[in-house]
Amino acid sequence: MYAIVEIGGQQHKVTKAQKLYVNLLESEEGSNLEFDKVLLVDNNGEVSIGFPFVDGTRVAATIVGHVKDDKIHIFKHKRRKGYRRFNGHRQPLTEIFIQGILGKGETLKETLEVPKRIKKDYKTEAPVVEADVETGEVAPKKKAAAPKKKAAATKKATGETKAKKPVAKKSSPKKKSKE
After folding, report:
1. Radius of gyration for the alpha carbons in the chain, expressed in angstroms and rounded
2. Considering only CA atoms, which of 93, 122, 96, 125 is closest in space to residue 19?
């Protein structure tokens, strides 16, 4: 089952137990929301299209947190004119967790446990913590060890030393004296 819902002026395809990033919403973390601007609902092949919205259908969601998107660099220049402008932007987003799609007259029977927001420490590159949605267990993510390279058999490793060739002396041209 999925639905097309309008959130913050944009249309999103949502399913139950899905994380979604939308433009910044003015609500606190952990608060529950219901979006009633549902444009289409597909319930196992049974499609309901709204004109403009499907009557009585809502999407229940919980706000996980407020985050910022990746940085976008804007660079403007005009060649040979000395005009250069550099700017950056990070779009504020709200991370939401879809609890379910509610039909006409339905209420949310059971609320799903909202997965924890993962914060990555970029300075120390700390291990990322993953939370399993179904069991709720939190386990640190381990980095895979890089495979070790096999040491090539070299003469140094075997104890043999390379015999040095005698260095040829450079001869400088003799200067002729005028006598």
Report:
1. 32
2. 96
